[in-house]
Design goal:
The chain is α/β, with parallel strands linked by helices. The protein has three domains: about 1-35 and about 85-125 and about 175-245, TPP-binding domain (Rossmann fold, 3-Layer(aba) Sandwich); about 35-80, no CATH class; about 130-170, SIR2/SIRT2 'Small Domain' (2-Layer Sandwich). About 35% of the residues lie in helices and about 15% in strands. It is built from eleven helices and nine strands. A six-stranded parallel β-sheet has the order 3-2-1-7-8-9, sandwiched between helices. Strands 5-4-6 form a three-stranded antiparallel β-sheet, with no helix packed on it. The longest helix is centred in the N-terminal third of the chain and has 14 residues, at about 5-15. The radius of gyration is 19 Å and the shape is elongated. Bound molecules: zinc ion. Zinc ion (ZN) binds near residues 135, 157, 159 and 162.
């Protein structure tokens, strides 16, 4: 099928579905210029001299935050600041679908908050968000840029002096229960799942797709192990695909 024919089929599937959910991976954000953690040119493969003695997984782990906080925050500030990064066509198209009542919710593995900035409301951030911060001792919440703008190696709580950390799931931590609960609500009873920007190689992405019994659409640059099980597959840019839907 040509690109236009597949877009037409995708539009039809969305119109016919009584409940649709979107599941998104790093590929949704890379088109905004945010590096993918796992891709060839991604974050994990860009080594800075001062971090070279550590594994990338360690630098974003709870162990690093607790044992070497100055290293953790230096890496975090250098790599995860999304200041100046804007949502792309994919984010805006999904927000538009939600406004029209055609999308029940978004489940995202990204931590950049770009879906909300594009106007989406129902978003389950299963790996947390860099836009939320809190004191690990007293729980006080801090604004989005608190860690990036804080002075000194470790951002401190104004009330108790504890470490202010991002509300992001670090290696060695459990996924946030309330976000997983939201995600289950979006998937439950859905007739159509659109999966975008993920190779579906790791949990929880693979789990959501493997358990899903409705119609499945996959949008990813590279092929995935679930392509043959999908009703429709796009290997084009996710911004181009979602941006081409006219309903
Ligand atoms: Zn505190």
């Amino acid at each position: 099928m040509s690109f236009e024919e597949r877009i037409e089929k995708l539009t039809q599937l969305i119109k016919e579905s009584r409940k649709t959910v979107f599941f998104g991976g790093a590929g949704v954000s890379t088109e905004s210029g945010i590096p993918d953690f796992r891709s060839k040119d991604g974050l994990y493969n860009v080594r800075d001299v001062q971090f070279e003695m550590y594994q990338p997984e360690y630098l974003l782990s709870i162990d690093c935050l607790e044992d070497r906080p100055e290293v953790f925050f230096e890496y975090y500030r250098q790599k995860l600041d999304t200041h100046g990064i804007e949502p792309n066509r994919a984010h805006y198209a999904l927000a538009e679908l939600e406004k029209k009542g055609l999308l029940a919710g978004i489940i995202t593995q990204n931590i950049d908050g770009l879906h909300q900035r594009a106007g989406s409301v129902n978003v389950a951030e299963v790996h947390g968000s860099t836009l939320r911060n809190y004191c690990s001792s007293c729980g006080t919440k801090y604004p989005a840029d608190y860690i990036f703008k804080s002075e000194g190696p470790i951002p401190r709580c104004k009330h108790c002096g504890g470490t202010v950390r991002p509300d992001v799931t670090l290696y060695g931590e459990m996924l946030p229960e309330n976000e997983l609960y939201k995600a289950d609500k979006y998937v439950s009873g859905a007739e159509l799942m659109i999966v975008g920007g993920t190779s579906l190689a790791v949990w929880p992405a693979a789990g959501y797709v493997a358990r899903f019994r409705g119609r499945l659409v996959i949008i990813n640059r590279d092929s995935t192990q679930y392509d043959s099980a999908a009703d429709l597959v796009f290997h084009e840019s996710i911004g181009e695909v979602l941006g081409s839907i006219i309903i």
